[in-house]
Write a structure and sequence with these properties.
The chain contains 2 helices and 7 strands, in the order αβββββββα. It is of the alpha+beta class. It has a domain of about 70 residues: CD59.
């Protein structure tokens, strides 16, 4: 009975709704900061920076489901550049320099802990 109760508590904790990611969401010629709650499906905060000598700079920040970091040249003529930075923690896109993309570690650690707990219950039911 204790094992079944413990299993139910673990499953309830694992299926609890996750809190939404918070990112800065804005578009500006300078580094902007406007915190907002993201949609439940959003896993990354993205910062896209375009530096264009002829038309000026543009920094766009948003919430996205998927993100691929990149860095490149906009055009040979203008010498402009564009970068995309991705991160996966609350308000991590505060500065336009950005951080490398990484998986959310908290959910990975929770999953590993639950798996080890269930394995211990199966292998040692008398605990």
């Amino acid at each position: 009975m204790k094992t079944a109760l413990l299993l139910l508590v673990i499953l309830a904790a694992a299926t609890a709704p996750a809190r939404a990611l918070r990112c800065h969401v804005c578009s500006s010629a300078t580094d902007c900061k406007k915190p907002q709650d993201c949609a439940a499906s959003s896993r990354f905060c993205r910062t896209m920076t375009k530096k264009e000598p002829l038309s000026g700079n543009l920094v766009e920040k948003d919430c996205v489901d998927w993100c691929t970091p990149s860095q490149g040249q906009l055009s040979q003529v203008s010498g402009g550049s564009a970068t995309t930075a991705c991160c996966a923690s609350d308000l991590c896109n505060a500065q336009s320099s950005g951080a490398a993309a990484h998986a959310p570690l908290a959910s990975t650690a929770l999953g590993l802990t639950l798996a080890l707990g269930l394995l211990a219950l199966i292998l040692a039911p008398g605990l």
